[in-house]
Design goal:
Elements lengths: L1 H12 L1 H4 L14 H11 L12 H18 L6 H17 L4 H12 L20 H6 L10 H18 L4 H9 L6 H11 L14 H4 L3
Length: 217
Amino acid sequence: MIARRAALALLAAGPFAATQARAGGQIEEPLADSVRTALSSAVANSAPPVPEFPDTESRLSYLRWLGAMSPRLTRRKVDWQERKEFLQTVWYEAKRAGLDPGLVLGLIQVESAFRKFAVSRVGARGYMQVMPFWSRLIGDGDPGKLFHMQTNLRFGCVILRHYIDRERGNLFMALGRYNGSRGKPQYPDAVFAAGRQWQFVDSTPPKGADPALRAGG
């Protein structure tokens, strides 16, 4: 059903929708059993993306981030509720994978221009342009689910985290691997440039800070 809806959406949007995905695609590589098991566990979708916070200030910081990101995304997602759910899920999945939400938003911008049903020429799908073979390797084998928002974002964030770990923290090389162009600068440079548009600096002093800082003096 999901795959059928995705196909109908693509037909309704016309050929423009299919050309929005400029990325190449991840290349299938052998995975050690331990890595496959870890990745499969990481993408298991057992709970909705509802952020949890250790304290009030952490929650307020998230809300400030949400308030800053929402206007930047309005042109691409007009409906407030859809925009909120999307940003909440990006934040949740990025933090879950130990990634910067701004970087993830930049990657999505480059990969799919924020189009949920984007499909690249090599078959990569959805917001983060996940290649269908990942569903077979670490999912339940149904690539149609890659058009589901949370599933796509979770796969994308988990895969990027995997590549960062493989590249021993080298984000430039990891992004190239994500795109299938390891070692070439065009894709990482594009993601870094897009990511700068989604950076957020929380300038509100933390609770207990010097009152002079709160007053700006």
